[in-house]
Specification:
The chain is an alpha/beta fold. The chain has helices at about 50-55, 70-80, 90-110, 115-120, 160-175, 195-200, 235-245, 260-270, 285-295, 305, 310-320, 340-350, 360-380; strands at about 5-10, 20-25, 25-30, 125-135, 150-155, 210, 220, 225, 230, 250-255, 275, 300, 325-330, 350-355. An eight-stranded mixed β-barrel has the order 4-5-6-10-11-12-13-14, surrounded by five helices. A three-stranded antiparallel beta sheet has the order 1-2-3. Helix 7 (about 235-245) packs parallel to helix 8 and helix 12 packs across helix 13 (about 360-380).
């Protein structure tokens, strides 16, 4: 496939902030943006969004793209054209939107689904991880839980059944909380503390629960700053262990700050459940390899625009499979109507997908997963 037409432009995400959209041969792709960012994420743009838009619009791609692996040609071209150390230096949001638009154009050109460009032999749909109750940096309430996300993880036989369980439980929580206010990701807002939220969630015996503590966001001067107490490192580890055991928490994301690989390993040693790295690993191979070496995690958040390179994303999935690390493909708080995240989760073989429960920006991903499941069911 020849890249005949390429256009980049600025659009608004779900938080009404600027992000980038790229159109290749009539197929559009856009990048989300995160509010809670890890220190080691790839910068979103080379200089700024305006620079990247101008740079993309100036590209003259003369080579053909006929397979996923041909993205390596694009990355080599960008490195040479803009004198970069690596393609990610172009900017994660810009690179991701550009590569995604090219793959969408290739899928359209070849009469295939987007996920088939990555993997023709697909059998499973990832399990959804839904943000049900919000806190931390995502909350607009003055009094809110310090942890950023309280999560629901269903375990039914099909994605359709998982989706139904997720939405039923989410709606029931809204009625019990007696609230109609939601945060940027569509999670219910409340003024309960962390343990009160967990007491409520643990009353739903038919669904697993999880937390994204986003601990780096309240770690200051070597202590974790809760509303009524400051915890030292060992105290935080003990508290996380206590929460996991008391509330049977299946999924624990970023229980410690983003530098504490050894602390993560202490929590992992005492838990059979998922200890998930996000700010710790930021979808980067070197951080992932360090986490594996330190035995810090058994699960990882993968956000395409934390890295930018879909080629490197594929390598991350391969490393995770080799080391039995569960993978969680994830959205960002500032989302767009692009549903490609669903295809990438299926194509790369993610174990889970974290893309919210409510709001139209999240629902397009969930609806695409339902559509993919119907496509796969017809092939059986």
């Amino acid at each position: 496939m020849l890249v005949k037409e390429i256009n980049a432009r600025k659009i608004k995400d779900s938080r009404n902030e600027d992000t980038i959209e790229v159109e290749v041969n009539g197929q559009r792709a856009s990048s989300p943006s995160g509010k809670s960012k890890g220190k080691y994420e790839t910068p979103s743009y080379y200089k700024n969004i305006a620079w990247n838009i101008k740079a993309i619009n100036s590209l003259k791609i003369s080579f053909e793209i006929n397979s996923f692996s041909d993205l390596s040609k694009l990355e080599s071209y960008l490195k040479k054209q803009f004198k970069l150390k690596n393609a990610k230096e172009f900017g994660a949001n810009a690179l991701y939107a550009l590569e995604s638009a090219i793959l969408k154009a290739l899928a359209k050109n070849n009469g295939k689904e987007l996920f088939e460009i990555i993997n023709v032999v697909v059998k499973d749909i990832p399990i959804p991880v839904g943000n049900a109750i919000g806190g931390g940096l995502h909350s607009h309430f003055k009094n809110h839980p310090i942890f950023q996300e309280f999560l629901l993880i269903p375990n039914e036989k099909s994605f359709k059944e998982n989706f139904e369980r997720l939405t039923e439980t989410y709606e029931s929580l809204g009625r019990k909380l007696k609230t109609y206010k939601v945060n940027d990701e569509g999670a219910w807002e409340c003024s309960l503390d962390e343990e009160q939220v967990l007491e409520l969630l643990s009353s739903y015996k038919e669904i697993n629960i999880g937390i994204d503590t986003a601990s780096s966001s309240f770690f200051k001067k070597d202590k974790y700053h809760y509303k009524k107490i400051k915890r030292k490192n060992n105290e935080q580890i003990n508290y996380i262990d206590y929460l996991i055991n008391k509330f049977n928490i299946y999924y624990m994301e970023d229980p410690l700050q983003e530098e504490d690989f050894k602390g993560f390993s202490k929590i992992k040693r005492t838990s059979r459940n998922l200890i998930v790295g996000d700010d710790l690993t930021v979808t980067h191979i070197d951080r992932l390899k360090k986490a594996i070496k330190e035995n810090s995690i058994n699960s990882i958040i993968i956000k395409p625009n934390q890295n930018g390179s879909l080629m490197e994303l594929k390598e991350i999935f391969e490393i995770c499979r080799k080391n039995k690390i569960k993978t969680v493909m994830s959205h960002r708080s500032g989302e767009t109507f692009d549903n490609a995240l669903a295809d990438y989760a299926v194509g790369f073989g993610a174990d889970f997908i974290k893309c919210g429960i409510a709001t139209k920006w999240r629902e397009v991903k969930l609806n695409r997963l339902l559509e993919i499941e119907r496509i796969l069911d017809k092939r059986v």
